[in-house]
Each structure stands twice: as structure tokens, then as C-alpha cells.
User: What shape does this take?
Amino acid sequence: MLFFTDKWFRATNDPTFLEWINYHINKSCLQNSNSHFQWSHYLHLEKFYEELTERNFKPTLNSINTIKHLMAIQDGIYPGFTIDNGEDLAGPIKAIQECYLNVYDLKHYAPIVMHPKGFCHDNFPLYYSLLFPTQLEYAKKHNKSSNIMAELREMKILTEALQNCTRENEAYNFNYFHFDEDKFREISPASLIPSSDPRFSNTENYGEKRLFPYNSPFFRGCIQIFCAPRHCEGHTPRHCEERSDEAI
Assistant: This one.
């Protein structure tokens, strides 16, 4: 490990030296990164911080960490959440759903079960919930619905700044949902999630037509994450390649 103290930078004003330092750091990151997606993630973060500095925008620590985590999910580094499609690959999902229907006597809503999943070979969106944070850095505990709405608005502004500094095929695409109606109409109602993801509107497996549980804790402050074009155009995140090898 090399550590450059501030004396290195104070001792010289030579721009060539500073360029060399920057080149060396970037080259080292590229050589030590596990995949192309982690390297591109690092570059996007750097551009993102530069954009925030130019705008003189100072978001809360939790919002910036959440955006970083959402970027990592879309870049295939960390998993998000998806709806179980009845395959029971994530566990005994059907048995759990039958318990909700027959034991707990769930009346009107569909017994939807969410489980972790990374972007692989399908274009279905993933989800992240502010009330069930999985980020590795500091995560704020939410107590009031109004705090969640304010944080979603701030993260939407951060997303616009992020889109400003990425190319079209590298764009980060997030939709923000809350179970309450946003008086500023910036955050979409969670009840509209099935209209953008038809998997949530398919309730035939539960024996009757049931409602989407838009007011459940998971969807009260929910972010929808779409597959990045660079993934959908034939590139495969590393964790998907490893999973394919194991299947073979």
C-alpha cells in the first residue's frame, strides 16, 4: 500500500507530477478492481462528486450513501430485491405464502414475498426499501413518514445530478415511490408500481384477484432500479458469470 501525505502535494506545484499521481491511482484501481463494472462504478462516483461540488449541493450523509448503494446495485456489485415468481429458489416461498393466506387469514392483499437478487439476464427492475436498508455504510433509521418523503425528494435531485454526468448508455435510472401522495408531485404513489412492473399485478397464483400491498412497510419508501443499458446490451456482471459457471 502506498500512502501519499499532504507534504507530497505541498512540496510541488508541478502539474505534471500531479497528473502522474492521478494516473497512478487510477491505474492501480483498474488493476485491482474485480470487474469492469466495479471500475466503471468508481469512475461514475468520481464524476458524481465533481458534479455535486460544481453545484455546491450538500446532501445529507444518508442520502449520499443510499445513492452510492443504488449505483452499486445497478452496476451489479450488490443485490437489490425482486418479487418471488413462484420458483422457490430463494426458500420455501410458497409455504410462507400459504401460511399468510390460510393461517393468518390474509383477506384482501396478495402475499408478496421479496428476496435479494442481482441484475443478470433479464430486464426486470430491482427494488430497494428505505425502511429495510441493506447498505454497508451508515443507514438512517426512519420513524416518520414525512422524513422518508423528504429523503426521497433529495435523492431524486441527486439522481438528476448523476444523470447529468453520465453518458446515455451509462445512465442510472431510478424511480421513487411512497405510499402517501406527494403534494409536490415529485414522488410517485406506490400504488402505481404494478403499472410499471406487471409481475406485481399477476395474482392468479393466489387463487383470486388480490390487491397490491402498496402500504406495506417495504413499499412505503421504495426505489425502483432499472437495468442499465450497458448491462442489457450483452455485458454480464461478474456474479452472473460465476452463477452460470456453477449451473454448468
User: Anything to note?
Assistant: The first strand starts at residue 80 and ends at 83. Residues 234-239, 241-248 have pLDDT under 50 and may be disordered. The chain has nine helices and six strands.
